[in-house]
Amino acid sequence: SCQLDKLAKAAGLQYFGTAIDNPSLNNQNYMRVARDISEFGSITPANGQKWSNTQPSQGRFSYTSGDSIANIAKQSGQQLRCHTLVWYNQLPGWVSSVYGKDQMQRIITAHIQNVAGHYKGQCTHWDVVNEAMEDDGRYRNNPMYRAMGVDYITHAFKTTAQTDPAARLYYNDFNIERCCNAKINATLSMLKTVISAGAPIHGVGMQGHSRVGKSPSKREMKETMAKFGELVDEVAFTEVDIRHTKLPTTAADRDQQALDYVEVVGACLETPKCVGITVWDFTDQYSWIPGQYPGEGEACLWDRNYNKKPAYTAIVNLLQSA
Ligand code: G3I
After folding, report:
1. Catalytic pick from 131, 177, 263, 298?
2. Does ligand 1 lie within 6 Å of residue 47's CB atom?
3. Ligand 1: which of 43, 47, 49 to mutate, most ligand atoms within 8 Å of CB?
4. Which of 39, 177, 234, 239 is catalytic?
5. Per-residue pLDDT of the chain (322 residues; tens, 9 = 90+)
6. Residue 83 CA: which ligand 1 atom is closest?
């Protein structure tokens, strides 16, 4: 049959996955697709495992949102790709008021031991550190960096490896798909720094949020993955969606979107170290894009009425011919 994860596996990838989020779990049309293991072999909680959900106040841990999604994956036989332990965004206020290095280190240790400990054995991958770099190549000046410098990254990876030794540990970021901008060069040198300081990093996740008609080409993405592949065992596209910047769309716009998605999937297929692709939700009904970019959207593979779009069909055709 012609479904995404089945075909991706036949074409040599480890998985084709999707992020899903808590507000959509009571929608039956949504769940029918989300639980379909032939479409999605891997599930990622879009918000449930983030710091603001898992440790909203110091020492008070909550796994309700994350577990709802982990349990869906478990019941459906799908893998769980976990997201994310240390990120500047969706970080509760109490963490931002920590300034001492030792204190911050203890806080990161406790957070990871609890959260990665809770999910131990369930996560095939963890996005351990998310979005640590700025587009201009500087380290993002977040509370963890202010307290610890780049050591917070090393420390986060070491602690996660100790807590859940079976998970594949990723550094994850956006705007690192198109070779080779300032952010990619800075990310490469950051990775060298922390790896030589002992950070056990298995993979680099390229989020893959982009815009129709302005999305990176297959050639550009393969070049980037080759560079990351010199430093780590594997790479993956972790949050793919390709949004229209002008709505409503025409048939030509939707065909262009299909071409753009095919470049991403093709780049992964042609890169031996690229293990899989995750889309950042699968239906326009629940995409994060309109909330963040008013007037833009329709970035997903299914439309809001659960019809498959040309991008879906184009990916299936590519995977079938691979
Ligand atoms: O939880 C509150 C809820 O109480 C309130 O009623 C509602 C009103 O708007 O907001 C809810 O919080 C929202 C949260 O998602 C949970 O739904 C936030 O406003 C909203 O900003 C937040 O957006 C998430 C975003 O990360 C935050 O940066 C998106 O759903 C999520 O898809 C998105 O995911 C990120 C990845 O983690 C990292 N890479 C980029 C990607 C897209 O921004």
Report:
1. 131
2. yes
3. 47
4. 239
5. 689 999 999 999 999 999 999 999 999 999 999 999 999 999 999 999 999 999 999 999 999 999 999 999 999 999 999 999 999 999 999 999 877 999 999 999 999 999 999 999 999 999 999 999 999 999 999 999 999 999 999 999 999 999 999 999 999 999 999 999 999 999 999 999 999 999 999 999 999 999 999 999 999 999 999 999 999 999 999 999 999 999 999 999 999 999 999 999 999 999 999 999 999 999 999 999 999 999 999 999 999 999 999 999 999 999 999 8
6. 37
Instruction: Please say if 131 is a catalytic residue.
Output: yes
* Residue 90 CB less than 6 A away from ligand 1: yes
Beta bridge partners of 204: 171, 235
What is the extent of the structural domain holding 164? 4-321
How many CA atoms, within 13 angstroms, populate the side-chain half-sphere of residue 184?
19
Can you tell me the ipTM of this complex?
A: 0.94
How does DSSP classify residue 171? Answer: E
Identify the burial level of 83 via C-beta atoms within 10 angstroms of its C-beta, where 0-12 means exposed, 13-18 middle and 19 or more buried: buried
Ligand 1 atom 15: residue of nearest CA: 47
- Going by the DSSP 8-state scheme, the letter that residue 282 receives in this structure is S
CB 95 within 8 A of CB 148: no
pTM of the model: 0.97
Q: In three state form, how does the secondary structure of 120-162 look?
A: CCCEEEEEEEECCECCCCCECCCHHHHHHCCHHHHHHHHHHHH
CATH number at residue 188: 3.20.20.80
Backbone angles phi, psi at 307, to 5 degrees: -90, 140
Count structural domains, the chain. 1
Q: What span, in angstroms and rounded, lies between the C-alpha atoms of 298 and 296?
A: 7
Is residue 239 among the annotated active site residues? yes
